[in-house]
Amino acid sequence: MRTLPNDAAIISCAVTGAIHVPTMSPHLPVTPEEIATAAIEAAEAGASIVHIHVRDPETGEPITDLDLFRQVATRIHEETDVIVQPTTGGAPTMAPEERVRVVPELEPEMASCNMGSINFGLYPLLEKYDEFEYDWEAEYLEGTRDLIFRNTFDDLESMLPVFDEYGTKPELECYDVGHLYNAKHMVDRGFIEPPLHLQFVLGIHGGIGGDGENLTHMYRIAETLFGNDFSFSVIGAGRHEFPRAVQALDLGGHVRVGLEDNLYLRPGKLAESNADLVAKAVDLTRDLTGRDIASPKQVREFLELTGKDATDL
Question: How far apart are CA 47 and CA 54, in angstroms?
Fold first, then answer.
């Protein structure tokens, strides 16, 4: 496994995502201004990568409006040195060809790329709320009962060349062990060039569970498949966020936090900002592992990114 000089840790922040709906937290960023501000604050708190989705400014519904992506990304780009990482995952309800359009639009240094199809069940969240602020929310969550988040081999064969054409590094989102084998298949066929940066996603209903044994298993399989040609970060959904973050750091990996993945700073206490979650991750990294926090410059060099000036922002 690859590590940064001095074993510094990368902290990523996913500021809004497409999982939580506005009813669930008044602190979830929705408008372009709110999303950009949240990303800037996360960078100031210690994140070197900010992961970006956009939402309908009026209702908070996840969308893939390229003008909104540009508004958000441009402001972040102008006000910080953080790495802007747009999603090509969008929402589970969106087609792959719709989701990948953000890469030629922004030519980002880095973007997420999902490595396989899964059931993506958000419907259990319905049980926690009696009423919803917007009409679309309950329908959106219920619709995931009969939903496959599509990322077929054909989709990957179409999407990955777009990353290559625009010099965008794919962060390989792996929601289950089979996705690691999909990544190896794409490496072997020349669609992905090592070194790889993997994101282990644990705790999504339909993917691998959020317990520690599963993270250890994912890590060991990655070592078997990729040897020293990979680095990894970890998402622990919901209550798994910080336990898996500490475990990832102990394994020499990196972490992602943010209101896309988890709404709570601690049990029963909603996080009031993405920056609060980043600050907690920074404290855990330094206090429990003694590792330093990687700067955007260090991350760009480590992940071999094209650089901020190479983007279309």
Answer: 19
